[in-house]
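Researcher: Sequence recovery benchmark, item below. Answer with residues only.
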């Protein structure tokens, strides 16, 4: 069964995006808890995944191993393909009746790999993937995000101020391009405190899902 751009996937697939340190992981869990409290079946997931390809990507991000920028772009697309179509993946969960919320998806590749190897290859590799119903793009000053990252024990290769500035600009550029293709993308001011961001997210998600607040 193909879910390419179908109404069912668009009704049930939500993505959270943003530069490193934007708070996507924290807000993903808060949103899942809020939906669960309202009796809504919700599956949270993330990219890179915890699968074999995702583990290779994470090793590259941590600096444990090295790969060219184009290789990383192909790895992300391969991991995403498994994430969507593989066992216990996005489509399987949607078919089971769950809302699926992913911490990062195709827009992340367009932004990050768009910086590292140019936008053409990431666009080519990701153009055929299913379109989420709602994408929440967290926008935050990179200086704020880097300050948050400095609290972490382990750093990744992309977690520098200059690189995050470039990624933020690419996110904006690619989001505009996707919106022109029909993607529903809402911008979230992720520089606010956690509770204020949570309220903004719930406002958009509840409206998308038709939930009365």
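Model:
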């Amino acid at each position: 069964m193909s879910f390419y751009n179908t109404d069912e996937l668009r009704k049930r697939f939500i993505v959270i995006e943003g530069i490193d340190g934007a708070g996507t992981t924290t807000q993903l869990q808060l949103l899942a808890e809020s939906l669960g409290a309202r009796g809504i079946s919700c599956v949270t997931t993330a990219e890179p995944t915890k699968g074999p390809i995702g583990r290779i990507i994470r090793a590259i991000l941590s600096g444990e191993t090295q790969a060219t920028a184009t290789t990383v772009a192909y790895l992300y697309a391969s991991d995403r393909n498994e994430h969507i179509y593989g066992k216990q993946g996005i489509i399987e969960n949607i078919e089971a009746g769950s809302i699926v919320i992913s911490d990062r998806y195709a827009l992340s590749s367009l932004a990050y790999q768009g910086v590292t190897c140019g936008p053409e290859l990431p666009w080519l590799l990701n153009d055929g993937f299913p379109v989420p119903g709602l994408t929440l793009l967290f926008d935050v000053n990179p200086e704020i995000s880097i300050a948050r990252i400095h609290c972490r024990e382990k750093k990744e290769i992309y977690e520098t101020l200059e690189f995050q500035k470039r990624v933020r600009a690419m996110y904006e550029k690619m989001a505009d391009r996707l919106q022109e293709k029909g993607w529903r993308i809402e911008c979230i001011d992720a520089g606010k405190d956690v509770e204020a961001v949570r309220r903004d997210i719930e406002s958009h998600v509840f409206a998308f899902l038709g939930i009365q607040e």
